[in-house]
Fold this sequence. Notes:
The chain is α+β, with helices and mostly antiparallel strands. It has two helices and five strands. The protein has helices spanning about 25-45, 165-170; strands at about 5-10, 50-60, 65-75, 80-90, 100-110. The protein is elongated. Keywords: Hydrolase. It comes from Glycomyces paridis.
Amino acid sequence: MAQAGPTIADVVFPDQLNHRGTLFGGAAIALMDRAAFVAASREARTDVVCAGADAIVFTHPIAPGDLVEATAAVERRGRRSMTVSVVVVAEALRTGERREAVRGTFHMVAAEPLETTAPGPGPAAGGEPAPAAGVRSGARRPDTAAPATVEEPSPAAGTRPGAPVPASLQSDTHAPQGETE
């Protein structure tokens, strides 16, 4: 990972657990997304959004009461996009044992082109960052490319603009009362 950037810490509470009694994966990813957002915002100094995430690997369960720290680092930057690696470390507060629990890559997009003179750990700061473990350097895989444009959702959820709306979504009527499944 490039020079470590911001770290966001939190304690795992019972409302964040899954059915197995460990941290719900979505809660871990949300923490990672926030850390990636802070790192990318500092790098871009403009509004950024998450365009996608990949290579998220859960390596160790996180227990209730554990302290979790998500540390992000900008690995690559382009004209508008940045690749941010995030590592989550869990610490058992009673014993002090620390272990890497989750690792992933987030693709952040800036609202405006990035300044080529902006300070930060990316190539503009005077060096090519080392790729994260298991991540190829260079172009993104075609199956993970961020969309070129963002379209407003159509009135019928799940349909493309201009696509025919299924008859089942056109009616405001519901199934007759009294019918059960």
